[in-house]
Amino acid sequence: MIFPFYLENFEKIDRVGKIFKEHLTGCGLCPRRCGVDRTKESGFCLQRDVPRISNVVLHYGEEPPLVEKNGAGAVFFCGCNMRCVYCQNFAFSQKNIGKNISVEELADYFLKLQELDATCLDLVTPTPHLPFIVEALGIAITKGFKLPIVYNTSSYESVEVLNLLDGIVDVYLADLKYSDDEVALRLSGVKDYWEVATAALREMYRQVGAFKRYASGVFRGLIVRHLVLPGDLSGSEKVARFIAEELSTSVPVAVMGQYNPVNRAREYPEIARRLSKQEYERVLDVFQSYDLVEGWYQLEDGEPVRAVGVKLAD
Ligand code: SF4
């Protein structure tokens, strides 16, 4: 296996980059399909025709195989195509606080993260920035860049756009937030989350399969993240059933219990509190009842509630 994926598909980067750039004058990079000319105005995600970032860091909070010794090399992009009322990154995802940089500077950040020995390039909420990311990747590769790419997404993605990333992205780190569209609309401003996100996850799984880490250090595949909301608003059983029955029980799942009512969450009584331990444990039982036993569960007081981990593949 050639690792990272894009070194096997270098010729694709230029071609795909040109397609993504066409969206800057009529954007349909995500299912919002705003159609705006981003050289003149911004669409729903607030992004224009230059990369805009909040931060570039070695990030130790991602799933363990993406962190290892030196952390995931995270680039936090501004903007988002969702409006989660509880978003902990709202300063840059919704208020667009950050700085504009050039594509060349973005490529330099990629190279800097490699110099710092990051485990991967962790692109956080990348979709509105795809025209710049792919161009920067092409520049960085000519200067020796070879970190694997992690696409860190809400999964509110278009299959057509994901399909263009086939052979470029090594790891999809993808949320499946809700199974009830009414809840998704109320809490995240998205009316068709379930249909769009499940189609996106099927495409991600088709491309890379379930996440595997090989003894050689090579890794690739899909990891699904599920944030558990109070009062079962995440619709966890339907989420677990979808992963188990329509993807695979081999897909590692990060069941996240760290919900905190930040941003505008206190305006919504049903989520204006933290998750209880019992609620979280109930969701773990549901995932286990569907044989979803690979992945990561919440740490409590420094100890795993239920310790599991992704097995090394041969
Ligand atoms: S990436 Fe932004 S501008 Fe483009 S379709 Fe999505 S929300 Fe609209």
Task: Kindly describe this structure.
This protein is α/β, with parallel strands linked by helices. It has one domain: TIM Barrel, CATH 3.20.20. The protein is 32% helix and 18% strand. It is built from 10 helices and 13 strands. The chain has helices at 10-22, 64-67, 90-93, 103-115, 130-142, 159-164, 181-188, 193-208, 236-247, 277-289; strands at residues 52-59, 72-77, 99-100, 121-124, 149-153, 171-175, 212-214, 219-227, 253-256, 295-297, 299-300, 303-304, 312-313. The strands form 2 sheets. Strands 1, 2, 3, 4, 5, 6, 7, 8, 9, 10 and 13 form an 11-stranded mixed sheet that branches. Helix 6 (159-164) links the parallel strand 5 (149-153) and strand 6. Helix 1 (10-22) packs antiparallel against helix 5 (130-142) and helix 4 packs across helix 5 (130-142). The radius of gyration is 19 Å and the shape is globular. The two termini are 12 Å apart. The mean pLDDT is 93. Bound molecules: iron/sulfur cluster (SF4). Iron/sulfur cluster is lined by residues 27-30, 32-34, 36, 43-45, 47, 81, 127-128.
Concise structural overview:
This protein has ten helices and 13 strands. The mean pLDDT is 93.
- Helix amount, in percent? 25-40%
**Rg value:** 19 Å
The overall strand count is 13
Going by CATH, the homologous superfamily would be Aldolase class I
Please indicate the count of domains. 1
Largest sheet: 11 strands, mixed
Looking at the overall shape, the CATH architecture is Alpha-Beta Barrel
Reading off the top of the CATH hierarchy, the class is best stated as Alpha Beta
Bound molecules: iron/sulfur cluster
What fraction of the residues are assigned to beta strands by DSSP? 15-25%
Overall structural class, as computed from helix and strand content, comes to alpha/beta
Terminus-to-terminus distance: 12 Å
In CATH, the topology is named TIM Barrel
